[in-house]
Amino acid sequence: MDRRIASAALAAIILPLALAGCSSLTSSGDGGGGGDAADFPGSEPITMIVPFSAGGSSDLMVRGLVPFMEDELGTSIIVENTVGAGGQIGLTSLANATPDGHTIGLTNLPSALAYVNEDRGATYDQDSFEALATVNRFRGIVAASSTGPWTSIEQVVEAAQAAPGTITVGVDGLGGDDHIVVTAFEEAAGVDFTIVPFDDGSEKMTALIGNQIDLSFGSVPTFRAQIETGSVSALAALDAEPIVGLEDVPTTESLGYDAVWESYNVLSAPAGLDAGVRDTLEAAIEAASEAAMQDADFEAQMTNGGYEFGFQDSAWTNEKWTDLDALWRELVPLALAQQ
């Protein structure tokens, strides 16, 4: 395919908590690693590493869930935002932490798959972590400015097929989550877009609203506020099923395009965790998730923010991680070839 990247000049122009509860989930196990399952977690606090900035969608979800986890574990949880290098600094810190259960964190998929791109120099991979649970899924959409020329994804595809490279798509840096999904869509629809990389999401959003780029791909929370104010329109749901609140937006599967946005909030510990400690943490996350969804304020936070909160166990999470790893190994080279 003849894919092209817009010049950098274009992109430039466009531009603890108190101890909570008294219940304690404990079990013993014979797995390897650090930590004593018999008395975990004890009174020692747990650090939750979030490799993203405070106030972002993942951070807000975690901070909403933490009080319920504290109730289940009977100890405090300190949320620590360790940012940088697109999440790699936080993930490296988590992978290198002592596997005793007192350090856990977010290993969101697919952003944790940065290690697939060797140019990123990540020192971890799937085997560096003990996946505990998935607690949320973000659905994705293709968005355009509501004042721009595009009113349907079919219109965009027709124009892109007629004149390859004329449709511009903004992404949060080359080789990131959104760039990979754009690549999947190009393959599915038989089109070539011009990719415009930005340093951050706010620059990309400004460019989209101002019609300096044609499209942007991303999660529902990314565009929720702009859709509600009418400055951005959703052209397609990157999924097989309609999105709650956007039921009138056609899905990519219904249009015949095999391109799905799969983005998950995954809680993990460093590899080498004792099996009993792992089971304690997994059970606590499950119970906390159930309690959270029975809380009106938390449920409203998830609904209004465009989250699809729901617990999936470690077995499900490991299988999903393995599947996405394989898919990313196919798509990342295609995306990077656009440089």
From TrEMBL:
<comment type="similarity">
    <text>Belongs to the UPF0065 (bug) family.</text>
</comment>
<dbReference type="InterPro" id="IPR005064">
    <property type="entry name" value="BUG"/>
</dbReference>
<protein>
    <submittedName>
        <fullName>Tripartite tricarboxylate transporter substrate binding protein</fullName>
    </submittedName>
</protein>
<keyword id="KW-0732">Signal</keyword>
<dbReference type="Pfam" id="PF03401">
    <property type="entry name" value="TctC"/>
</dbReference>
<dbReference type="InterPro" id="IPR042100">
    <property type="entry name" value="Bug_dom1"/>
</dbReference>
<feature type="signal peptide">
    <location>
        <begin position="1"/>
        <end position="20"/>
    </location>
</feature>
